[in-house]
């Protein structure tokens, strides 16, 4: 039976406030002359820690024991996850307090329609602006939101285009070579699962297919990527180590296996042709939030790991959250778009990546300033910058590349 515990947003944000970090103000962009001022921030973040989206995280027969219980329904933001998200809001408040100022500034919060995304947005803005009321813009539960769904955009790709793009991300030799290269990971996973042949991971060769221009992964990589993510979520939720992977895994091994989750995105979401199509709708929202004269000074969009992977692939962005794999979007991880303005009216776009480590999620430790990393974005790098029209052009170039 799952444990259901009632916690208010007020309690969660109060806990976060007790751990307010001594975060320095955000630095002026490298290479910029004195007089640059931060005047707009847009945060695109993944929801917080959740259980698997269904009771059996993998097909029946792979795990030799029942899966651990969670304190919320499948796929929902966990109560521990709420507290971790509140720490993110507190950290961002400390980082961007100069922009937000005192009182209750205008902030826009948008979330996908799932409970985990809506609840993440609610907890985040409550910690970002304590004592203020910010309504979260979202569609009804279960309703597809085109701002976060890539289905409509990727349908513009043919199956051949999508499949060719995904195959190009594989090593020479394709899925067979990938499975061979990753065979030590399949062995580790089978040991953690307590799996016995012939139903184990290695007996399911990795496969690729497409539906409506969207790449579908099957077999070992899909199973292994999902399982590594489940292990990370159990650990981040502060479950007893006897329950994390049934007591058969360490944190360091979880980090190593998370490379499989990153591989999933490298194949199905980050290839540029796929990413530019899938990220277009959300990037258009980001561009508007950065360039529209009447947009608020701070906007946050709460979606999924796929949304972050698509944006990363579309814009050529790379990050590395502590104790995660390179380019893996962790729970609560965020891409932060900062618009800086000079005294003469010029603009510059700076990108950063913000994330907790696995251990910080588990222990609810306050984030340190190192949680905010610079991200290279070539169209608006330190030597070029982006003026006001250039902000939209740089982020909307994904559309132009498809014509």
UniProtKB/TrEMBL annotation:
<dbReference type="InterPro" id="IPR000560">
    <property type="entry name" value="His_Pase_clade-2"/>
</dbReference>
<keyword id="KW-0732">Signal</keyword>
<keyword id="KW-0378">Hydrolase</keyword>
<feature type="signal peptide">
    <location>
        <begin position="1"/>
        <end position="24"/>
    </location>
</feature>
<protein>
    <submittedName>
        <fullName>Histidine-type phosphatase</fullName>
    </submittedName>
</protein>
<comment type="similarity">
    <text>Belongs to the histidine acid phosphatase family.</text>
</comment>
<dbReference type="InterPro" id="IPR050645">
    <property type="entry name" value="Histidine_acid_phosphatase"/>
</dbReference>
<dbReference type="Pfam" id="PF00328">
    <property type="entry name" value="His_Phos_2"/>
</dbReference>
<dbReference type="InterPro" id="IPR029033">
    <property type="entry name" value="His_PPase_superfam"/>
</dbReference>
<dbReference type="InterPro" id="IPR033379">
    <property type="entry name" value="Acid_Pase_AS"/>
</dbReference>
